[in-house]
Amino acid sequence: MNQVDDKRGRGDPGGRILVAEANPEVREYITRLLSDRWAITSVADGRAALQAVQEQSPDLVICDVTTPGLDGMALLRTLRGDPLRARIPVVLLSARAGEESRSEALEAGADDYLVQPFSARELVARVESTIALARLREQGEAAVRVSEERYRAFIEQSSEGVWRIEVDQPIPVSLPADQQIDLFYAHTRLAECNDAMARMYGFEHASELFGATLPDLLPRSDPANIEYLRAFIESGYRLYDAESHEMDRHGNSRYFLNNLVGILEDGHVMRAWGTQRDVTDRKRVEEDRRATAQALASVVAASPAAIIGQDGEGNVTFWSQAAERMFGWTAAEAVSRPFRLGPVGSDGKSDGGSGGMASGPGVTEFVTQAQRKDGSYVDVSVSTAALTGTDGAVTGAVAVVLDITDRKVAEERMRQAQRLEAVGRLAGGVAHEANNQMSVVLGSVAFLLSRSDLSDEVRDDVEQIRRAAERTAGVTTQLLAFSRRQVLQLQWLDLNAVVAGMESTLRRTMGEEVSVLLRAKPVAGSIVADPSHLEQVLLNLALNARDAMPGGGRLSVETGTTVLTEAYARLKPGVLIKPGVYAVLSVTDTGYGMDRDTLAHAFEPFFTTKGLGKGTGLGLSTVYGFVKQSGGYVWAYSEPGQGTVVKVYLPLVDLPSEPMTQPRPAGPENVVRRTVLVVEDEPQVRRMAARALAEAGHRVLEAGDGREAISVLARAGQGVDLVLTDVAMPGMSGRELADRLRQARPDVRVIFMSGYADDEIVRRGLLEPEQPFIQKPFTPEVLIRRVAELTDQWLPPDSGAGSF
Fold this sequence. Notes:
The chain is α/β, with parallel strands linked by helices. The protein is built from 25 helices and 27 strands.
């Protein structure tokens, strides 16, 4: 036998390892890896290994499954069959890597199975963990042995109570049971018991309980005790596993399970012997279980989810009240009948296959449509789990079913909102670029039309270009409204005043075939909105209504006030509604209405039910964008043939209404000549604006972005009166440029221009009063007039000073 005994490894808990490996190189490799931490005995065959185990009892055996003489599996079985050595941990080595070989080894009792080749780290880690687990197991088994000894001692010292009752006046067995019960309570006493019984009543020693009467132990006030004695009498004075309710020395209730026998002499009951076990804790557990069951029943009854139990055949065993409400069948109708909750089939309904109920471990969840008693279907989410018996066999299943109709509606609304948001971002970007280009077109057209040398034919062509550009600008304005990227000039408004001011326009728009009815109810408070856009909302709704009534009808416009509560918000899943007081603008027509699918797309841009070339599909999307940007909500209600109602909700504020005044137009003859810096990253727009201002008599400087504008201002010194800047520019935005100007040149005023405002301005929905705005596209005339208005309001004859 080749044996190597080395010193124990440094820092290791130590121990001896037996290595049985026929291959000398592998044996030497294992010995070298482990010998610095454990004492190693190495052998070349299984029989030598068995002898070494018998002589040394190592802490671990590492054995190749193919060792000659006695292979690894045979050695393992031999050790496991030896009571003295059965607990020695064994790690088998093998070149076979299959799961089947590993399972066979582990089932035979191996502690681990290591596949060759293996790394040094893996071997050391496996050896460490196997020895550690073996020691833990040994410690645990020792603890279990100690526990078992203590348990046996406890049983010996705390055996069942044993007692003897004497009857001072023997009771004739011929008497009726009720009379015998009276005599038992009057003439019996405890004559003998053991310490175990005494302890059941709160005493230390049995002698303390001697002489106790039956009423002391078995309260007559409990009807169950009367029935206990009656059963004893009627059973021939022999009773087994009978429960009694008694009192201990402190007046606490105790429950006992009794076996008792009466001793009869000459037809009289002389005494009784018995044993008893204290089952008070069990009774309390049962009572707790009953309380838990009652609480669970209350939870089930109160749960909005339907709870359904089924047996193995799919027949209903339990049907909650929520199931009655959800599906329409009563419990009496549903129990003992099959009910299917299968996953959705190709038609979107439950396929009923296996009932959808779980038949294996864990919880199965799925979404489906289940049929109601009336034949309709309801969208449900089902969570189901199998019920098993004591033998582990599946006996049925339970399902928790939630009506997810509202959730699906909310999800669809969320998807629609996301679609609208995505289209809005795209529309805003397109509109911004289009507005830049239309500014150039309209400016160039204005320059052409100002020439006196144009022929009438050319002038007509230029007018056609102007009208086309204005129509395009109108479309981009609608796109900006939908995308909520338009800049709103907000004012405090009286909704009723705005509607009244639109009455004549509405009547002209609707024509003679449509009657217009206005119903204005008092609106206590003001709304904050852009008056021109609010008028456009009302006009768009009226135009849509007119198109829906080609043969004539009635348009009703109503105003009022309502409170959107949290309860109302819950009725609109998927929409974040801020509770509060709102002004309501309701527009109703008697037209042909919309079906559900059309209604779902009504507020999407470019969606229209009109014929080709008869509509842009931007009317309602513009309404949607303005209302959302104003902090409100808009919903449409319609059915085919029943007309349409569109309701706009705008939040009310406790502020006084202010008149919608327009600034005094400034004519060219009133223009004060100023020095204006035009900051615009789009060269064509910049040149058009600069030319328009220059032709109006202003001195014009140009910059392509914010940083260049700062340089120009630094060079110009005090000579710049006004900065006209785009809002969204690369590098430094117009807002950042204005902030820099406020610090260095507070005397220089800023006018913003943009196809749409940047994100910060969009979120606020307006510009601050000191930051006027010109919406692109604009004509040279509009630009000149706006600059004249603002410079007249702001600039003194001499500008202030400052420097960059």
